[in-house]
């Protein structure tokens, strides 16, 4: 052992932050990380993480390390010394994926401006986390792109997840955005560049399967499917090595899982008026987390046909179409996995290594056809899950134990071209007003006034529409017979007072150009606590 190795081992921090087995870096640190067995004390892990994320620590592979794990975090001042005694075993990674963009197959896309750094487990909730940098430069998949991201798009992707998480919508998160004032990014105009450090349980998308299937890379498809089943979804019985063991089927179950989780997520988007804008299959996460925030928008004036992406000329990804587009994406995942799904139906077990690769074209065609049996059941269960979740979230927003499609549809008609957020926040007072015997027309009038941006929205036909809906709604409230004050209070925890409108993210970005970070922090706080009774200087932001 050389002198520098001894020095390194002595100075190495005692806390360990081992990545999991991953699609990227090679590591021999298998199984549960040490810090999960330390009786719940997560301080060390947090410190290790922040040391690493801030650049104070770097991860290196140390040859001859006594514990045999071979990989460690060391403080960055030791990194140079560490380099001398390491072998190349770790690096950030970018993944290849394809995708259907606006309905057409776009072939290979891939992580063109993101690199993943590490996969690990969040010690507080046991969930996987994959840490990624977006906008950190070109990758092997950058194609004609510059690998960069603008400060504006990065800060939009920083704020939206905070707001989504506060609403209870599954989402990726952003840890920090670092502006790069010395780097300009050319888009329609010149922009300041930024790097966004973002996390998700996994950044794998439907497009990761599609690219292998389209290129008939059946072994890669199988390996990825087994990896996702076992390591992302935690199905420990899935067999991933050669062996003669019975191989439990996983493919249809995997699609079912992706369908269900995305159904829940999109149901919540619909109930809160979130529009993703680019639901291409390369932007649909296998975990169901909302990812890749681009031209997203939260509904201002309620309009089912609202399109938030100005380059979506046909309205393919309009608010109304989002559930249908979820079905489309899941159908593409079935297409990609069809040979495996069919093989499993016919053989009652998953394909072993080599089976798919050595299959004839007619075998693949037969298995692909057999997979059709799963299409309808998966589509039906997606629709059922989505409808059920949508009714559940709407019921909570309405202060009801149960809400049906008819009541919600008629509400959406009644609030068309009114401000969705303000109407719903106003509605929180209705149970109390009913208990105080306020006349229904007065309630309707004040709800409409509170949610109108222009006078013409307040005419007699609008009052009739809202009054009629209120009659049914109030009947339901009364039939459930719950305490009005409690119901109103519960509704105020489900109907935000603050909504992250596009003009707000625009203003945040403009002020950041002037190095005003205080405004960003202010908006971030409002995103994180959107149900609070924001007052005074915040009034401008909730109007
Ligand atoms: P998006 O529309 O952001 O989902 O991106 C679609 C594809 O284009 C993905 O594969 C991205 O990685 C890639 N891409 C987008 N912007 C850039 C860029 N500035 N440089 C390189 N690749 C990019
Ligand atoms: Mg994308």
UniProtKB/TrEMBL annotation:
Which lineage do the record's taxonomy fields give for this organism? Eukaryota, Fungi, Dikarya, Basidiomycota, Ustilaginomycotina
GO cellular component entries: mitochondrion
Cite the residue spans of the region called Disordered: 1-43
Any idea which UniProt keywords this protein has? Answer: ATP-binding, Magnesium, Metal-binding, Nucleotide-binding, Nucleotidyltransferase, Transferase
- GO MF term list: AMPylase activity; ATP binding; metal ion binding
Cofactor dependence is on: Mg(2+)
- Look up keyword Nuclease and say if it applies: no
Please report which protein family the annotation says this sequence is part of. Belongs to the SELO family.
Q: What is this protein called?
A: Selenoprotein O
Q: Matching Pfam families, A to Z?
A: SelO
Under the heading InterPro entries, the entry gives: SelO (IPR003846)
